[in-house]
Amino acid sequence: MFAALTSTARTALRANVKPVARTLNLRLTAVRFASTTRYSTDHEYVHFDDATNIGTVGITDYAQKALGDVVFVELPQVDSEVTQADPIGAVESVKAASDIYAPVSGVVTEINEQLNDQANLLNKDSEGRGWLCKIKLSNPAEFEQLLTEKAYKAHCDGESE
Questions:
Q1: Which pLDDT tens digit goes with each residue over 81-133?
Q2: What is the rounded distance in angstroms from the CA atom of residue 30 to the CA atom of residue 7?
């Protein structure tokens, strides 16, 4: 849009944006992903959407690297109730098998069906398209008790020493 404007019009538009933003009490803020993702010490993550009270759960990049090539994923059942720290599934790789633990309590609302045919999505994009399930949190305070990104990185650094 700016390219079609004359330089005088662009200058006038820029000059008026700040006063309008102040009048409307608008703040330009960064996307809030950093504060909406937390981690368990068992290497699961939760991307939490506080508008829907749903957390997207998966294994971290650190976990998928430790496991190696993933060949099978066992997921929880939709509508099943899960309790924080209880096993909800498993991941099998060419190197090992590992349980998946619920990082939060709630009801499973959705599972990533793609993993049935493409378990290696965990290796390709574990914290994106390789998510495991979505949980409607019964106790959102549990999310706040999980590790921040900085604390999780420190936890991982301590494990690798």
A1: 999 999 999 999 998 999 999 999 999 999 999 999 999 999 999 999 999 99
A2: 28
End-to-end CA distance of the chain: 53
3-class DSSP state for residue 10? helix
Q: How far apart are CA 143 and CA 77, in angstroms?
A: 21
Rounded distance between C-alpha atoms, residue 111 and residue 57, angstroms: 9
| Model pTM score | 0.77
- Coil, helix or strand at residue 136: strand
* Type and span of the H or E element at 11: helix 7-23
Q: pLDDT tens digit string along 27-40?
A: 433 343 444 999 99
β-strand partners of 100 = 89
Q: Do 78 and 111 touch, CB atoms closer than 8 A? A: yes
What secondary structure letter does DSSP report for 24?
A: T
Residue 85 token pair: 């720290």
Give me 42's structure tokens: 């068992």
pLDDT score, position 159: 80
Which of helix, strand or coil describes residue 159? helix
Q: How many angstroms separate the CA atoms of 23 and 56, rounded? A: 37
